[in-house]
Amino acid sequence: MITKLLIANRGEIACRIIRTARAMGVATVAVYSDADAKALHVRSADEAVHIGPSPAAESYLVGEKIIAAAKETGAEAIHPGYGFLSENADFAQAVLDAGLIWVGPKPESIRAMGLKDAAKQLMMDAGVPVTPGYLGEDQSVERLTKEADAIGYPVLIKAVAGGGGKGMRKVERAKDFEADLESCRREAKASFGNDEVLLEKWITSPRHIEVQVFGDSHGNVVHLFERDCSLQRRHQKVIEEAPAPGMDEATREEICAAAVRAAKAVDYEGAGTIEFIADASEGLRADRIFFMEMNTRLQVEHPVTEEITGVDLVEWQLRVASGEPIPLKQDELSINGHAIEARLYAEDPAKGFLPSTGRLDYLCLPLPTRTFTTRVETGVEEGDAVSSFYDPMIAKLIVHAKDREFAIEAMKTLTGGTRCWPVKSNTGFLHLLLHAKEFEDATMDTGLVGSRIDDLLPAEEASEKALQSIGHMIVDQALGGNAGDIRETYLEAETGPWSNMGFRLNREISQTIMRLTDGANDYQVEFTDQSIDDSLWVEATPNGYAIVEGGVTRMFNATRFEGTGHASAADGAIIAPMPGKVIAVDVSEGQEVKAGDRLMVLEAMKMEHALTAPFDGTVTELSAAKDAQVQVEAVLCVVEPGETDE
Fold this sequence. Notes:
This protein is α+β, with helices and mostly antiparallel strands. α4 (about 90-95) runs antiparallel to α5 and α16 packs across α18 (about 500-515).
Protein backbone atom coordinates (compact mmCIF):
# COMPACT_ATOMS: atom_id res chain seq x y z
CA MET A 1 0.00 0.00 0.00
CA ILE A 2 1.12 3.54 -0.76
CA THR A 3 2.47 5.21 2.39
CA LYS A 4 3.01 8.78 1.16
CA LEU A 5 0.96 10.56 -1.51
CA LEU A 6 1.50 13.85 -3.34
CA ILE A 7 -1.69 15.53 -4.56
CA ALA A 8 -1.08 17.43 -7.81
CA ASN A 9 -4.10 19.67 -7.40
CA ARG A 10 -5.71 22.29 -5.19
CA GLY A 11 -9.02 23.35 -3.67
CA GLU A 12 -11.84 21.05 -2.69
CA ILE A 13 -10.59 17.96 -4.54
CA ALA A 14 -7.19 18.17 -2.85
CA CYS A 15 -8.90 18.46 0.54
CA ARG A 16 -11.18 15.53 -0.29
CA ILE A 17 -8.23 13.29 -1.25
CA ILE A 18 -6.34 14.30 1.90
CA ARG A 19 -9.30 13.26 4.06
CA THR A 20 -9.43 9.71 2.66
CA ALA A 21 -5.65 9.33 2.66
CA ARG A 22 -5.48 10.32 6.31
CA ALA A 23 -8.20 7.80 7.20
CA MET A 24 -6.11 5.11 5.48
CA GLY A 25 -2.94 6.12 7.30
CA VAL A 26 -1.33 7.56 4.16
CA ALA A 27 0.81 10.70 4.62
CA THR A 28 -0.01 13.58 2.25
CA VAL A 29 1.97 16.24 0.43
CA ALA A 30 0.27 19.32 -1.01
CA VAL A 31 1.63 21.57 -3.73
CA TYR A 32 0.76 25.25 -4.00
CA SER A 33 1.26 28.40 -6.03
CA ASP A 34 1.79 31.93 -4.73
CA ALA A 35 -1.96 32.55 -4.66
CA ASP A 36 -2.55 29.39 -2.60
CA ALA A 37 0.17 29.86 0.00
CA LYS A 38 -2.42 29.97 2.82
CA ALA A 39 -5.06 27.77 1.17
CA LEU A 40 -7.03 25.13 3.05
CA HIS A 41 -5.46 22.21 1.18
CA VAL A 42 -2.02 23.49 2.18
CA ARG A 43 -3.08 23.80 5.82
CA SER A 44 -4.65 20.32 5.76
CA ALA A 45 -1.77 18.28 4.30
CA ASP A 46 1.11 16.82 6.31
CA GLU A 47 3.60 18.68 4.10
CA ALA A 48 3.40 21.34 1.39
CA VAL A 49 5.75 22.37 -1.41
CA HIS A 50 5.71 25.68 -3.27
CA ILE A 51 5.75 25.11 -7.05
CA GLY A 52 5.60 28.56 -8.60
CA PRO A 53 3.69 31.74 -9.44
CA SER A 54 -0.10 32.05 -9.33
CA PRO A 55 -0.94 31.32 -13.00
CA ALA A 56 -1.64 27.61 -13.41
CA ALA A 57 0.59 27.51 -16.49
CA GLU A 58 3.54 28.36 -14.24
CA SER A 59 2.66 26.07 -11.32
CA TYR A 60 -0.07 23.41 -11.35
CA LEU A 61 0.44 22.67 -15.04
CA VAL A 62 4.22 22.26 -14.82
CA GLY A 63 4.72 18.52 -14.48
CA GLU A 64 8.45 18.76 -13.85
CA LYS A 65 7.91 20.84 -10.71
CA ILE A 66 5.32 18.41 -9.37
CA ILE A 67 7.50 15.35 -9.94
CA ALA A 68 10.45 17.17 -8.33
CA ALA A 69 8.27 17.94 -5.29
CA ALA A 70 7.34 14.26 -4.98
CA LYS A 71 10.96 13.19 -5.05
CA GLU A 72 12.01 15.93 -2.66
CA THR A 73 9.46 14.83 -0.05
CA GLY A 74 9.80 11.08 -0.57
CA ALA A 75 6.25 10.65 -1.86
CA GLU A 76 5.75 7.31 -3.62
CA ALA A 77 2.69 8.26 -5.64
CA ILE A 78 0.96 11.20 -7.33
CA HIS A 79 -2.80 11.70 -7.40
CA PRO A 80 -3.83 14.27 -10.03
CA GLY A 81 -7.40 14.92 -8.85
CA TYR A 82 -9.38 16.33 -11.78
CA GLY A 83 -8.60 19.16 -14.16
CA PHE A 84 -5.04 20.43 -14.57
CA LEU A 85 -2.82 17.43 -15.51
CA SER A 86 -5.27 14.66 -14.60
CA GLU A 87 -5.87 13.57 -18.23
CA ASN A 88 -2.42 14.41 -19.58
CA ALA A 89 -0.96 11.16 -20.85
CA ASP A 90 2.55 12.61 -21.18
CA PHE A 91 2.53 13.67 -17.53
CA ALA A 92 1.25 10.26 -16.44
CA GLN A 93 4.10 8.64 -18.39
CA ALA A 94 6.63 11.05 -16.87
CA VAL A 95 5.42 10.09 -13.39
CA LEU A 96 5.91 6.41 -14.16
CA ASP A 97 9.30 7.05 -15.80
CA ALA A 98 10.38 8.81 -12.59
CA GLY A 99 9.75 5.59 -10.69
CA LEU A 100 6.58 6.89 -9.02
CA ILE A 101 3.07 5.44 -8.84
CA TRP A 102 0.45 7.18 -10.98
CA VAL A 103 -2.97 7.11 -9.30
CA GLY A 104 -4.95 6.87 -12.50
CA PRO A 105 -5.32 4.94 -15.74
CA LYS A 106 -2.40 3.89 -17.90
CA PRO A 107 -1.09 6.62 -20.24
CA GLU A 108 -2.17 4.63 -23.30
CA SER A 109 -5.74 4.48 -21.98
CA ILE A 110 -5.74 8.25 -21.50
CA ARG A 111 -4.46 8.73 -25.04
CA ALA A 112 -7.06 6.37 -26.45
CA MET A 113 -9.89 8.35 -24.89
CA GLY A 114 -8.26 11.79 -24.85
CA LEU A 115 -9.23 12.80 -28.38
CA LYS A 116 -12.97 12.68 -28.82
CA ASP A 117 -12.88 11.78 -32.52
CA ALA A 118 -10.56 8.78 -32.04
CA ALA A 119 -12.50 7.70 -28.94
CA LYS A 120 -15.78 7.66 -30.83
CA GLN A 121 -14.30 5.45 -33.53
CA LEU A 122 -12.91 3.11 -30.87
CA MET A 123 -16.35 2.90 -29.24
CA MET A 124 -18.01 2.12 -32.56
CA ASP A 125 -15.56 -0.76 -32.99
CA ALA A 126 -16.46 -1.99 -29.47
CA GLY A 127 -20.18 -1.98 -30.25
CA VAL A 128 -21.01 1.09 -28.16
CA PRO A 129 -23.63 3.36 -29.84
CA VAL A 130 -22.36 6.85 -30.74
CA THR A 131 -23.97 10.14 -31.75
CA PRO A 132 -24.14 10.87 -35.51
CA GLY A 133 -21.60 13.48 -36.61
CA TYR A 134 -18.26 14.28 -38.30
CA LEU A 135 -14.94 12.94 -37.02
CA GLY A 136 -12.74 13.64 -40.05
CA GLU A 137 -9.14 14.85 -40.22
CA ASP A 138 -9.97 17.65 -42.65
CA GLN A 139 -10.32 20.64 -40.32
CA SER A 140 -10.75 23.32 -42.96
CA VAL A 141 -13.53 25.83 -42.47
CA GLU A 142 -14.96 24.80 -45.84
CA ARG A 143 -15.13 21.09 -44.97
CA LEU A 144 -16.53 21.66 -41.49
CA THR A 145 -19.17 24.03 -42.86
CA LYS A 146 -20.16 21.47 -45.49
CA GLU A 147 -20.41 18.70 -42.89
CA ALA A 148 -22.48 20.88 -40.56
CA ASP A 149 -24.91 21.58 -43.41
CA ALA A 150 -25.15 17.84 -44.10
CA ILE A 151 -25.76 16.96 -40.43
CA GLY A 152 -28.45 19.63 -40.16
CA TYR A 153 -28.89 22.44 -37.65
CA PRO A 154 -28.72 22.78 -34.76
CA VAL A 155 -25.24 21.25 -34.65
CA LEU A 156 -22.73 20.95 -31.80
CA ILE A 157 -19.06 21.94 -32.23
CA LYS A 158 -16.79 20.19 -29.70
CA ALA A 159 -13.06 20.48 -29.14
CA VAL A 160 -11.56 17.02 -29.62
CA ALA A 161 -9.40 17.55 -26.53
CA GLY A 162 -12.10 19.41 -24.59
CA GLY A 163 -13.89 19.00 -21.31
CA GLY A 164 -15.82 20.97 -18.72
CA GLY A 165 -17.88 22.75 -21.35
CA LYS A 166 -14.85 24.60 -22.74
CA GLY A 167 -14.36 24.59 -26.49
CA MET A 168 -18.01 23.73 -27.13
CA ARG A 169 -20.69 25.63 -29.05
CA LYS A 170 -24.26 24.88 -30.09
CA VAL A 171 -24.88 26.50 -33.48
CA GLU A 172 -28.50 27.20 -34.38
CA ARG A 173 -28.07 28.72 -37.84
CA ALA A 174 -25.73 28.22 -40.78
CA LYS A 175 -24.84 31.92 -40.87
CA ASP A 176 -23.43 31.71 -37.32
CA PHE A 177 -21.28 28.63 -37.91
CA GLU A 178 -18.00 30.25 -38.96
CA ALA A 179 -17.95 32.80 -36.12
CA ASP A 180 -18.82 30.17 -33.51
CA LEU A 181 -16.19 27.81 -34.95
CA GLU A 182 -13.53 30.53 -34.62
CA SER A 183 -14.50 31.24 -31.01
CA CYS A 184 -14.63 27.54 -30.15
CA ARG A 185 -11.19 26.90 -31.63
CA ARG A 186 -9.65 29.88 -29.85
CA GLU A 187 -11.06 28.77 -26.48
CA ALA A 188 -9.94 25.16 -27.09
CA LYS A 189 -6.43 26.29 -27.99
CA ALA A 190 -6.17 28.38 -24.82
CA SER A 191 -7.54 25.63 -22.58
CA PHE A 192 -6.09 22.45 -24.09
CA GLY A 193 -3.40 23.50 -26.57
CA ASN A 194 -5.36 21.83 -29.39
CA ASP A 195 -7.89 23.63 -31.61
CA GLU A 196 -9.20 20.62 -33.56
CA VAL A 197 -12.93 20.00 -33.36
CA LEU A 198 -15.58 17.43 -34.19
CA LEU A 199 -19.24 17.94 -35.06
CA GLU A 200 -22.28 16.20 -33.60
CA LYS A 201 -25.98 16.27 -34.28
CA TRP A 202 -27.80 18.22 -31.58
CA ILE A 203 -30.09 15.75 -29.83
CA THR A 204 -33.73 16.67 -29.18
CA SER A 205 -34.69 16.69 -25.48
CA PRO A 206 -31.17 15.64 -24.43
CA ARG A 207 -30.43 14.15 -21.04
CA HIS A 208 -26.83 13.80 -19.88
CA ILE A 209 -26.41 10.33 -18.38
CA GLU A 210 -23.03 9.00 -17.27
CA VAL A 211 -21.84 5.74 -15.79
CA GLN A 212 -19.10 5.39 -13.18
CA VAL A 213 -16.69 2.58 -14.07
CA PHE A 214 -13.70 1.15 -12.24
CA GLY A 215 -10.97 -1.18 -13.43
CA ASP A 216 -7.90 -2.78 -11.88
CA SER A 217 -4.61 -4.32 -13.04
CA HIS A 218 -6.06 -7.83 -12.72
CA GLY A 219 -8.48 -7.46 -15.63
CA ASN A 220 -11.57 -6.67 -13.54
CA VAL A 221 -13.98 -3.89 -14.55
CA VAL A 222 -17.18 -2.98 -12.71
CA HIS A 223 -19.73 -0.19 -12.97
CA LEU A 224 -21.19 1.73 -10.03
CA PHE A 225 -24.43 2.65 -11.79
CA GLU A 226 -25.39 5.91 -13.43
CA ARG A 227 -25.68 9.61 -12.66
CA ASP A 228 -27.89 12.24 -14.27
CA CYS A 229 -26.05 15.49 -15.03
CA SER A 230 -28.67 17.16 -17.23
CA LEU A 231 -28.87 20.42 -15.29
CA GLN A 232 -26.17 22.44 -17.01
CA ARG A 233 -25.43 26.06 -17.77
CA ARG A 234 -23.35 26.63 -20.90
CA HIS A 235 -22.42 22.92 -20.88
CA GLN A 236 -21.13 23.18 -17.30
CA LYS A 237 -22.88 20.86 -14.84
CA VAL A 238 -24.50 22.61 -11.88
CA ILE A 239 -26.67 19.93 -10.22
CA GLU A 240 -26.11 16.17 -10.48
CA GLU A 241 -27.97 13.20 -9.02
CA ALA A 242 -27.81 9.44 -8.72
CA PRO A 243 -29.47 7.29 -9.78
CA ALA A 244 -30.96 8.88 -12.92
CA PRO A 245 -34.69 9.51 -12.46
CA GLY A 246 -36.88 7.55 -14.86
CA MET A 247 -34.24 4.90 -15.52
CA ASP A 248 -35.85 1.46 -15.63
CA GLU A 249 -33.83 -1.64 -14.78
CA ALA A 250 -33.64 -2.92 -18.36
CA THR A 251 -32.27 0.36 -19.69
CA ARG A 252 -29.90 0.64 -16.74
CA GLU A 253 -28.55 -2.83 -17.43
CA GLU A 254 -27.90 -2.03 -21.10
CA ILE A 255 -26.25 1.35 -20.59
CA CYS A 256 -24.06 0.09 -17.74
CA ALA A 257 -23.02 -2.96 -19.77
CA ALA A 258 -22.08 -0.64 -22.66
CA ALA A 259 -19.98 1.43 -20.24
CA VAL A 260 -18.12 -1.67 -19.06
CA ARG A 261 -17.45 -2.66 -22.70
CA ALA A 262 -16.08 0.82 -23.33
CA ALA A 263 -13.71 0.58 -20.36
CA LYS A 264 -12.51 -2.89 -21.33
CA ALA A 265 -11.83 -1.68 -24.88
CA VAL A 266 -8.99 0.48 -23.53
CA ASP A 267 -7.83 -1.95 -20.81
CA TYR A 268 -8.91 0.59 -18.20
CA GLU A 269 -7.55 0.83 -14.67
CA GLY A 270 -8.81 3.14 -11.92
CA ALA A 271 -11.82 5.45 -11.78
CA GLY A 272 -13.41 6.63 -15.03
CA THR A 273 -16.70 7.88 -16.39
CA ILE A 274 -18.46 6.97 -19.63
CA GLU A 275 -20.67 9.89 -20.65
CA PHE A 276 -23.79 9.34 -22.74
CA ILE A 277 -26.33 11.67 -24.34
CA ALA A 278 -29.91 10.42 -24.28
CA ASP A 279 -32.77 11.48 -26.52
CA ALA A 280 -35.41 11.66 -23.79
CA SER A 281 -38.28 12.83 -25.98
CA GLU A 282 -39.98 9.51 -25.19
CA GLY A 283 -38.32 8.84 -21.85
CA LEU A 284 -35.04 6.99 -21.27
CA ARG A 285 -34.65 4.17 -23.79
CA ALA A 286 -31.56 2.08 -24.47
CA ASP A 287 -31.87 2.54 -28.24
CA ARG A 288 -31.75 6.33 -27.85
CA ILE A 289 -28.69 6.67 -25.65
CA PHE A 290 -25.36 7.47 -27.36
CA PHE A 291 -21.73 7.55 -26.24
CA MET A 292 -20.24 11.06 -26.00
CA GLU A 293 -16.86 10.69 -24.33
CA MET A 294 -14.89 9.09 -21.54
CA ASN A 295 -13.36 11.05 -18.70
CA THR A 296 -10.23 9.19 -17.63
CA ARG A 297 -10.19 10.52 -14.09
CA LEU A 298 -12.30 11.07 -11.01
CA GLN A 299 -15.32 13.30 -11.76
CA VAL A 300 -16.40 16.39 -9.84
CA GLU A 301 -19.75 14.72 -9.18
CA HIS A 302 -18.35 11.44 -7.85
CA PRO A 303 -19.81 12.00 -4.33
CA VAL A 304 -23.37 11.16 -5.43
CA THR A 305 -22.17 7.75 -6.59
CA GLU A 306 -20.33 7.25 -3.32
CA GLU A 307 -23.48 8.12 -1.35
CA ILE A 308 -25.77 5.62 -3.10
CA THR A 309 -23.22 2.77 -3.15
CA GLY A 310 -21.41 3.30 0.15
CA VAL A 311 -18.07 3.19 -1.67
CA ASP A 312 -15.12 5.57 -1.16
CA LEU A 313 -13.82 5.95 -4.72
CA VAL A 314 -10.60 7.66 -3.64
CA GLU A 315 -9.84 4.71 -1.35
CA TRP A 316 -10.45 2.39 -4.31
CA GLN A 317 -8.11 4.51 -6.43
CA LEU A 318 -5.30 4.24 -3.89
CA ARG A 319 -5.80 0.49 -3.41
CA VAL A 320 -5.91 -0.27 -7.15
CA ALA A 321 -2.88 1.97 -7.79
CA SER A 322 -1.06 -0.07 -5.13
CA GLY A 323 -1.76 -3.25 -7.11
CA GLU A 324 -4.78 -4.53 -5.19
CA PRO A 325 -7.91 -5.83 -6.95
CA ILE A 326 -11.19 -3.90 -6.87
CA PRO A 327 -12.58 -4.40 -3.33
CA LEU A 328 -16.08 -5.45 -4.46
CA LYS A 329 -17.46 -7.59 -7.28
CA GLN A 330 -20.30 -6.41 -9.50
CA ASP A 331 -22.96 -8.45 -7.71
CA GLU A 332 -21.88 -6.94 -4.39
CA LEU A 333 -22.75 -3.41 -5.55
CA SER A 334 -26.26 -2.00 -5.24
CA ILE A 335 -28.18 1.29 -5.17
CA ASN A 336 -29.32 2.65 -1.81
CA GLY A 337 -31.53 5.76 -1.78
CA HIS A 338 -31.01 8.93 -3.79
CA ALA A 339 -28.23 11.55 -3.76
CA ILE A 340 -28.01 15.08 -5.19
CA GLU A 341 -25.01 17.38 -5.55
CA ALA A 342 -25.14 21.14 -6.16
CA ARG A 343 -22.05 23.08 -7.23
CA LEU A 344 -21.66 26.32 -5.29
CA TYR A 345 -19.69 28.78 -7.40
CA ALA A 346 -18.34 32.25 -6.70
CA GLU A 347 -20.18 33.90 -9.55
CA ASP A 348 -22.74 36.64 -9.97
CA PRO A 349 -26.01 35.63 -11.69
CA ALA A 350 -26.89 39.33 -12.09
CA LYS A 351 -23.78 39.75 -14.26
CA GLY A 352 -24.32 36.76 -16.50
CA PHE A 353 -22.70 34.38 -13.98
CA LEU A 354 -19.28 35.96 -14.31
CA PRO A 355 -16.87 34.79 -11.59
CA SER A 356 -16.77 36.88 -8.41
CA THR A 357 -13.46 37.09 -6.60
CA GLY A 358 -12.31 38.39 -3.24
CA ARG A 359 -12.26 37.57 0.44
CA LEU A 360 -15.01 35.41 1.94
CA ASP A 361 -15.73 37.58 4.95
CA TYR A 362 -18.94 35.71 5.72
CA LEU A 363 -19.31 32.04 4.79
CA CYS A 364 -21.61 29.58 6.51
CA LEU A 365 -21.99 26.21 4.81
CA PRO A 366 -24.58 23.60 5.87
CA LEU A 367 -23.98 21.36 8.85
CA PRO A 368 -25.00 17.68 9.10
CA THR A 369 -28.58 17.00 10.21
CA ARG A 370 -30.36 14.05 11.75
CA THR A 371 -33.01 13.77 9.06
CA PHE A 372 -30.80 13.31 6.00
CA THR A 373 -27.11 12.90 5.21
CA THR A 374 -25.37 16.20 4.48
CA ARG A 375 -21.92 16.34 2.96
CA VAL A 376 -19.91 19.43 2.05
CA GLU A 377 -16.77 19.30 -0.07
CA THR A 378 -14.86 22.58 -0.01
CA GLY A 379 -11.40 24.04 -0.36
CA VAL A 380 -12.10 27.30 1.50
CA GLU A 381 -13.13 28.54 4.92
CA GLU A 382 -14.51 31.84 6.12
CA GLY A 383 -11.77 34.44 5.72
CA ASP A 384 -10.15 32.73 2.72
CA ALA A 385 -10.11 34.36 -0.71
CA VAL A 386 -11.50 33.29 -4.07
CA SER A 387 -8.73 33.85 -6.62
CA SER A 388 -9.16 34.98 -10.21
CA PHE A 389 -6.52 32.45 -11.28
CA TYR A 390 -8.56 29.27 -10.85
CA ASP A 391 -11.99 27.70 -11.10
CA PRO A 392 -14.39 29.74 -8.90
CA MET A 393 -15.91 26.79 -7.03
CA ILE A 394 -16.57 27.47 -3.35
CA ALA A 395 -18.04 24.11 -2.40
CA LYS A 396 -20.09 21.09 -3.42
CA LEU A 397 -23.24 20.49 -1.39
CA ILE A 398 -24.34 16.84 -1.29
CA VAL A 399 -27.42 15.25 0.26
CA HIS A 400 -28.39 11.58 0.52
CA ALA A 401 -31.93 10.58 1.43
CA LYS A 402 -34.28 7.61 1.18
CA ASP A 403 -35.81 8.79 -2.10
CA ARG A 404 -35.58 11.55 -4.73
CA GLU A 405 -38.44 13.66 -3.36
CA PHE A 406 -36.87 13.78 0.10
CA ALA A 407 -33.43 14.51 -1.38
CA ILE A 408 -34.79 17.48 -3.36
CA GLU A 409 -36.41 18.96 -0.27
CA ALA A 410 -33.20 18.44 1.67
CA MET A 411 -31.14 20.23 -0.99
CA LYS A 412 -33.62 23.13 -1.01
CA THR A 413 -32.96 23.53 2.70
CA LEU A 414 -29.20 23.47 2.17
CA THR A 415 -29.14 26.03 -0.63
CA GLY A 416 -31.67 28.24 1.13
CA GLY A 417 -29.52 28.46 4.24
CA THR A 418 -26.03 28.77 2.71
CA ARG A 419 -24.54 32.21 3.42
CA CYS A 420 -21.78 33.90 1.42
CA TRP A 421 -20.67 37.58 1.37
CA PRO A 422 -19.29 39.88 -0.08
CA VAL A 423 -18.28 37.43 -2.82
CA LYS A 424 -21.35 36.79 -4.94
CA SER A 425 -22.50 33.20 -5.36
CA ASN A 426 -24.90 31.16 -7.48
CA THR A 427 -26.74 29.80 -4.44
CA GLY A 428 -29.93 31.72 -5.16
CA PHE A 429 -29.89 30.40 -8.73
CA LEU A 430 -29.46 26.84 -7.45
CA HIS A 431 -32.31 27.31 -4.99
CA LEU A 432 -34.69 28.44 -7.73
CA LEU A 433 -33.52 25.66 -10.07
CA LEU A 434 -34.40 23.06 -7.44
CA HIS A 435 -37.94 24.48 -7.44
CA ALA A 436 -38.32 24.23 -11.24
CA LYS A 437 -41.27 22.01 -12.11
CA GLU A 438 -39.29 20.26 -14.84
CA PHE A 439 -36.66 19.21 -12.32
CA GLU A 440 -39.10 18.19 -9.63
CA ASP A 441 -41.06 15.95 -12.00
CA ALA A 442 -37.89 14.74 -13.82
CA THR A 443 -38.85 16.04 -17.27
CA MET A 444 -35.78 18.30 -17.52
CA ASP A 445 -33.17 18.18 -20.26
CA THR A 446 -29.84 19.91 -20.79
CA GLY A 447 -31.59 22.96 -22.25
CA LEU A 448 -33.69 23.69 -19.16
CA VAL A 449 -31.45 26.35 -17.66
CA GLY A 450 -30.95 28.16 -20.94
CA SER A 451 -34.66 28.20 -21.73
CA ARG A 452 -35.73 29.31 -18.24
CA ILE A 453 -32.82 31.53 -17.25
CA ASP A 454 -34.96 34.63 -16.60
CA ASP A 455 -37.05 32.64 -14.11
CA LEU A 456 -33.94 31.31 -12.38
CA LEU A 457 -32.30 34.66 -11.55
CA PRO A 458 -32.86 35.74 -7.93
CA ALA A 459 -34.73 38.98 -7.23
CA GLU A 460 -32.47 42.00 -6.89
CA GLU A 461 -34.40 43.30 -3.89
CA ALA A 462 -35.13 41.79 -0.52
CA SER A 463 -38.75 40.86 0.18
CA GLU A 464 -40.99 42.75 2.59
CA LYS A 465 -40.78 39.77 4.95
CA ALA A 466 -36.99 39.99 4.97
CA LEU A 467 -37.05 43.76 5.54
CA GLN A 468 -39.44 43.40 8.46
CA SER A 469 -37.29 40.65 9.95
CA ILE A 470 -34.11 42.72 9.84
CA GLY A 471 -36.05 45.65 11.28
CA HIS A 472 -37.23 43.46 14.15
CA MET A 473 -33.68 42.41 14.93
CA ILE A 474 -32.33 45.96 14.92
CA VAL A 475 -35.17 47.26 17.12
CA ASP A 476 -34.77 44.31 19.45
CA GLN A 477 -31.10 45.10 19.91
CA ALA A 478 -31.87 48.83 20.33
CA LEU A 479 -34.40 48.46 23.15
CA GLY A 480 -31.73 48.83 25.78
CA GLY A 481 -32.14 52.61 25.68
CA ASN A 482 -30.89 53.30 22.17
CA ALA A 483 -34.17 53.03 20.27
CA GLY A 484 -34.38 56.80 19.81
CA ASP A 485 -30.84 56.96 18.39
CA ILE A 486 -31.61 54.13 16.01
CA ARG A 487 -34.79 55.90 14.85
CA GLU A 488 -32.89 59.15 14.16
CA THR A 489 -30.25 57.28 12.17
CA TYR A 490 -32.88 55.95 9.82
CA LEU A 491 -34.75 59.24 9.61
CA GLU A 492 -31.53 60.72 8.22
CA ALA A 493 -31.48 57.97 5.61
CA GLU A 494 -34.36 59.69 3.81
CA THR A 495 -32.06 62.56 2.76
CA GLY A 496 -28.62 61.09 3.31
CA PRO A 497 -26.00 60.16 0.71
CA TRP A 498 -27.57 56.88 -0.35
CA SER A 499 -27.07 55.59 -3.88
CA ASN A 500 -28.64 53.28 -6.43
CA MET A 501 -30.59 50.28 -5.14
CA GLY A 502 -29.04 50.62 -1.71
CA PHE A 503 -31.00 53.83 -1.04
CA ARG A 504 -34.40 52.28 -1.66
CA LEU A 505 -33.67 49.19 0.35
CA ASN A 506 -32.35 51.21 3.27
CA ARG A 507 -35.34 53.53 3.03
CA GLU A 508 -37.72 50.56 3.23
CA ILE A 509 -35.87 49.14 6.20
CA SER A 510 -35.80 52.56 7.88
CA GLN A 511 -39.54 52.94 7.41
CA THR A 512 -40.09 49.52 8.95
CA ILE A 513 -37.88 50.47 11.90
CA MET A 514 -39.64 53.81 12.39
CA ARG A 515 -43.01 52.07 12.50
CA LEU A 516 -41.67 49.69 15.12
CA THR A 517 -39.89 52.34 17.25
CA ASP A 518 -42.93 54.61 17.32
CA GLY A 519 -44.25 52.17 19.88
CA ALA A 520 -40.91 51.06 21.25
CA ASN A 521 -41.90 51.33 24.89
CA ASP A 522 -44.56 48.68 24.38
CA TYR A 523 -42.77 46.69 21.67
CA GLN A 524 -41.69 43.16 22.43
CA VAL A 525 -40.12 40.75 19.99
CA GLU A 526 -38.89 37.20 20.34
CA PHE A 527 -36.16 36.78 17.74
CA THR A 528 -33.28 34.37 17.42
CA ASP A 529 -30.62 34.13 14.74
CA GLN A 530 -31.99 30.81 13.52
CA SER A 531 -33.62 29.83 10.25
CA ILE A 532 -37.08 31.33 9.76
CA ASP A 533 -37.86 28.77 7.07
CA ASP A 534 -35.97 26.96 4.32
CA SER A 535 -35.39 30.18 2.37
CA LEU A 536 -35.00 33.07 4.85
CA TRP A 537 -32.35 33.64 7.48
CA VAL A 538 -31.64 36.82 9.45
CA GLU A 539 -28.42 36.88 11.41
CA ALA A 540 -26.21 39.35 13.24
CA THR A 541 -22.58 39.11 12.06
CA PRO A 542 -19.37 41.07 12.69
CA ASN A 543 -19.96 42.68 9.27
CA GLY A 544 -23.51 43.82 10.04
CA TYR A 545 -26.95 42.27 9.74
CA ALA A 546 -27.25 39.54 7.15
CA ILE A 547 -30.41 38.79 5.24
CA VAL A 548 -30.14 35.41 3.54
CA GLU A 549 -33.17 34.88 1.37
CA GLY A 550 -33.53 31.98 -1.03
CA GLY A 551 -29.76 31.49 -0.92
CA VAL A 552 -28.97 35.16 -1.69
CA THR A 553 -26.93 36.94 0.99
CA ARG A 554 -27.40 40.68 1.52
CA MET A 555 -25.54 42.55 4.25
CA PHE A 556 -27.01 45.56 6.06
CA ASN A 557 -25.31 48.02 8.42
CA ALA A 558 -25.78 51.65 9.46
CA THR A 559 -24.29 53.16 6.33
CA ARG A 560 -24.64 50.80 3.42
CA PHE A 561 -26.61 47.89 2.01
CA GLU A 562 -24.61 45.33 0.04
CA GLY A 563 -27.10 43.56 -2.18
CA THR A 564 -26.99 42.01 -5.62
CA GLY A 565 -26.46 45.34 -7.32
CA HIS A 566 -23.14 46.15 -8.94
CA ALA A 567 -21.05 49.20 -9.65
CA SER A 568 -21.75 51.00 -12.88
CA ALA A 569 -20.37 53.95 -14.78
CA ALA A 570 -22.36 56.44 -16.84
CA ASP A 571 -24.82 55.10 -19.42
CA GLY A 572 -22.93 53.51 -22.27
CA ALA A 573 -19.76 52.84 -20.33
CA ILE A 574 -18.61 49.26 -20.94
CA ILE A 575 -17.08 48.03 -17.70
CA ALA A 576 -14.85 45.00 -17.13
CA PRO A 577 -17.02 42.61 -15.07
CA MET A 578 -13.93 40.87 -13.69
CA PRO A 579 -10.13 40.89 -13.98
CA GLY A 580 -8.96 39.41 -17.26
CA LYS A 581 -7.20 39.75 -20.60
CA VAL A 582 -8.64 41.48 -23.66
CA ILE A 583 -8.18 38.95 -26.46
CA ALA A 584 -10.14 40.68 -29.23
CA VAL A 585 -11.26 44.24 -29.97
CA ASP A 586 -13.88 44.50 -32.71
CA VAL A 587 -14.47 48.26 -32.84
CA SER A 588 -12.57 51.52 -33.15
CA GLU A 589 -13.26 55.04 -31.89
CA GLY A 590 -15.89 56.77 -33.95
CA GLN A 591 -17.43 53.51 -35.16
CA GLU A 592 -21.21 53.22 -35.19
CA VAL A 593 -22.65 50.10 -33.53
CA LYS A 594 -26.03 48.48 -33.13
CA ALA A 595 -27.43 47.11 -29.88
CA GLY A 596 -25.97 43.64 -29.30
CA ASP A 597 -22.93 44.12 -31.54
CA ARG A 598 -19.78 42.57 -30.09
CA LEU A 599 -17.34 45.23 -28.96
CA MET A 600 -14.56 43.09 -27.52
CA VAL A 601 -13.83 39.74 -25.86
CA LEU A 602 -12.46 39.34 -22.36
CA GLU A 603 -10.78 36.08 -21.31
CA ALA A 604 -10.79 35.08 -17.65
CA MET A 605 -10.47 31.67 -16.00
CA LYS A 606 -9.98 30.14 -19.48
CA MET A 607 -13.45 31.26 -20.57
CA GLU A 608 -14.34 33.90 -23.15
CA HIS A 609 -16.81 36.66 -22.29
CA ALA A 610 -18.14 38.81 -25.13
CA LEU A 611 -18.95 42.44 -24.24
CA THR A 612 -21.67 43.92 -26.42
CA ALA A 613 -23.19 47.31 -27.19
CA PRO A 614 -26.10 48.11 -24.83
CA PHE A 615 -27.90 50.15 -27.49
CA ASP A 616 -27.47 51.75 -30.92
CA GLY A 617 -24.81 54.44 -30.88
CA THR A 618 -21.22 55.47 -31.52
CA VAL A 619 -18.00 54.35 -29.82
CA THR A 620 -16.65 57.65 -28.49
CA GLU A 621 -13.87 56.30 -26.28
CA LEU A 622 -11.78 53.12 -26.51
CA SER A 623 -9.34 52.57 -23.67
CA ALA A 624 -8.78 48.81 -23.99
CA ALA A 625 -6.35 47.26 -26.46
CA LYS A 626 -5.87 43.66 -27.55
CA ASP A 627 -3.74 41.61 -25.11
CA ALA A 628 -4.20 44.19 -22.35
CA GLN A 629 -4.74 42.97 -18.79
CA VAL A 630 -7.63 44.82 -17.16
CA GLN A 631 -8.97 45.04 -13.64
CA VAL A 632 -12.55 44.59 -12.50
CA GLU A 633 -14.81 47.61 -13.16
CA ALA A 634 -12.26 49.29 -15.43
CA VAL A 635 -13.99 51.31 -18.17
CA LEU A 636 -13.02 49.61 -21.43
CA CYS A 637 -14.95 51.79 -23.87
CA VAL A 638 -17.87 54.18 -24.03
CA VAL A 639 -20.82 54.03 -26.41
CA GLU A 640 -22.88 57.20 -26.75
CA PRO A 641 -26.52 56.56 -27.66
CA GLY A 642 -27.94 57.65 -30.95
CA GLU A 643 -29.30 56.30 -34.20
CA THR A 644 -26.84 54.74 -36.61
CA ASP A 645 -26.82 55.19 -40.35
CA GLU A 646 -27.66 51.52 -40.94
